[in-house]
Design goal:
Blueprint (H helix, E strand, L loop, with lengths): L12 E7 L3 H10 L10 E8 L5 H4 L8 E7 L4 H11 L4 E6 L2 E3 L3 H6 L7 E9 L8 H19 L11 E5 H6 L11 H11 L3 E12 L6 H21 L20 H9 L1 H20 L3 H24 L2 H20 L2 H28 L10 H7 L1 H17 L3 H15 L2 E2 L4 E2 L4 E2 L6 E2 L4 E2 L4 E2 L4 E3 L1 E2 L6 E2 L2 E2 L4 E2 L4 E3 L3 E2 L4 E2 L4 E2 L8 E2 L12
Helix pairs in contact: 5-11, 8-11, 9-10, 9-11, 10-11, 12-13, 13-15, 14-15, 15-16
């Protein structure tokens, strides 16, 4: 097996399974790993129980495996957080993530590993429907049809980050951690959001038609499916707002492939979402009637329409108003036309840069009005402040560096990083993610790792370090994540894969190497003061 040379020693694979209220399905899957052709000392399985009614550690207490099985339990927080915890506990070079309602064949892990000849590849495996698909609810047969079309597309063309799914995927653990893992703010579509970040970091995506899982879902509730479809629209919109430079993250990208007959119904979902909800429920009942009458193609078409209506109801919910939805659709259409003419992705990156600079300036003015004893500072405009305020200059330079990176000009981004180093004595990596609305005060002496993430509303004073390091307990490597509105004082050093909770304040001179809950104040010991001898 032609593994990446760095993977030859130690544990090759950690299988991560998030599970919730499925003890028998999980047991079945765990027993199937006993049949793997991969040597048992080369892989482990980490199952994370997401607050099931029955503690899976108790339910599986009688299960003895010849491979290493580790069962974790957490309070119910969703599949994304469970998978994240599993990845942090894992010790293998490669993470294989799959769902608890899957089945796998003996060569499953080997087929994934065949593609891991380097440390920057993400491998998507194939789902095959269960032999009992015909007896499953209509929405499960709809998903099987859609997934079949997706996989057929994967065999013919390149796979992109926004197409990532966590039901059957493998990724180098170090790459996963460097990208920051799953964003805890996403309760759905978290795999798509992570895939986009991985693509931005240069990951290569591959599809394995042989790394197969059998999807054997036990879901039966149409109401839960309707809610899930709505939630997909909400979180797809959140993804597009977070990654405005990634055109294919937009929820509007689906419209080009939609049957024209369906478009008035989707327009209704955007214009009158409450009324559309009633229509969607009536349509799903009609589809079920057609299915019972033996008209499955008609029933699948109706289910597809219902999913689209619920999805765009969710889009409208997240957009906030019809006007906002129309504006964003027009922006998407213009950007798509730019791409069709060539160079559109660069224009999108430029617009994102300008929007981020404006948000940085707005947040700076907000904090000046809140904290500046002079009543808001000089009160200058954006151009004036870009000349007078060094901290804002640093942020403008950072945004330019990120524009180069987003538009594929990596060498220019690296050169801009050197410019920032020489002009401001600040070392900010081009991969560091600072959301729009970050404020830098003074701006000298910053050191920000490529893996650091800083959320909107944060303030960084001079001499701040956000460094890469290892967790002393788990040995996990990474750099800090600052949640929204964190203030980091002069000369503070934060390092390792830690999270600083929203609204916290790190006072001057602190050294922080462990996570901090929201609304915390972290202070360094007061210096000792004593009289001089003599």
């Amino acid at each position: 097996m032609a593994l990446c040379p760095a993977y030859q020693d130690g544990l090759w694979v950690s299988v991560v399974i998030a599970t919730y209220n499925r003890p028998e399905l999980l047991r079945r899957l765990l027993l199937q790993f006993e049949e793997q052709t991969l040597p048992k000392d080369r892989f482990e399985v980490v199952a994370v129980d997401d607050g099931s009614r029955e503690d899976m550690r108790v339910a599986l207490a009688d299960l003895h495996t010849s491979y290493r099985l580790h069962v974790e339990r957490q309070a119910n927080a969703g599949a994304a957080r469970a998978r994240q915890r599993g990845a942090e506990v894992a010790r293998g070079h490669v993470l294989v993530i799959l769902d608890d309602d899957m089945q796998v064949g003996p060569d499953y892990l080997e087929k994934h590993l065949e593609h891991h000849t380097d440390d920057h590849t993400v491998v998507l495996g194939r789902f095959r429907p269960s032999a009992s698909l015909e007896g499953m609810p209509l929405f499960e047969r709809f998903y099987a049809k859609i997934l079949g079309e997706v996989f057929e597309g994967h065999t013919k063309g390149p796979v992109r980050g926004h197409q990532m799914y966590t039901g059957n995927v493998s990724i180098a653990r170090e790459l996963f951690l460097r990208a920051g893992g799953f964003d805890p703010e996403f309760k759905a579509i978290e795999d798509e959001e992570l895939g986009i970040r991985l693509e931005k970091r240069g990951a290569r995506f591959a599809f394995s038609n042989e790394a197969v899982t059998i999807h054997d879902s036990d879901q039966t509730s149409t109401e839960k499916w309707l809610n899930r479809s709505f939630r997909d629209g909400v979180y797809s919109t959140k993804v597009s707002h977070k990654h405005k430079d990634h055109l294919l993250a937009s929820p509007w990208r689906h419209l080009a492939a939609i049957n024209p007959i369906s478009k008035p119904f989707l327009a209704l979902s955007l214009a009158a979402p409450r009324a559309a909800g009633g229509v969607a429920k009536a349509a799903v009942l009609a589809a079920q009637v057609a299915d019972k009458a033996g008209l499955e193609p008609v029933a699948i078409a109706g289910t597809t329409l219902v999913y689209g209506m619920q999805y765009y109801r969710g889009v409208r919910e997240e957009m906030g108003s019809l006007g906002a939805a129309v504006r964003e659709y027009r922006e998407f259409s213009r950007a798509a036309a730019d791409v069709a003419r060539g160079g559109g992705e660069h224009r999108g990156a430029y617009r994102e840069m300008v929007a981020a600079i404006r948000e940085d300036h707005r947040m700076m003015a907000h904090y000046a009005g809140k904290y500046d004893a002079r009543g808001g500072g000089d009160g200058g405009g954006l151009a004036s402040d870009a000349v007078k305020k060094i901290g804002f200059q640093v942020m403008v330079a950072y945004r330019i560096m990120r524009f180069f990176r987003a538009s594929g000009r990596t060498l220019a981004a690296q050169a801009m990083s050197r410019v920032i180093r020489h002009l401001y004595s600040s070392d900010i990596h081009w991969d560091a993610e600072l959301e729009p609305g970050v404020v830098v005060v003074h701006g000298f002496g910053l050191a920000i790792s490529y893996a650091a993430r800083v959320s909107s509303g944060c303030i960084l004073y001079q001499g701040v370090t956000l460094g890469y390091g290892n967790d002393p307990v788990t040995k996990r490597a990474g750099a800090p994540l600052l949640e929204k509105n964190v203030h980091v004082g002069i000369g503070a050093t934060l390092y390792g894969p830690i999270t600083i909770g929203e609204g916290s304040k790190i006072m001057a001179g602190c050294v922080v190497s462990q996570s901090v809950p929201a609304r915390s104040v972290i202070e360094a010991p007061a210096p000792a003061v004593r009289p001089r001898a003599g």
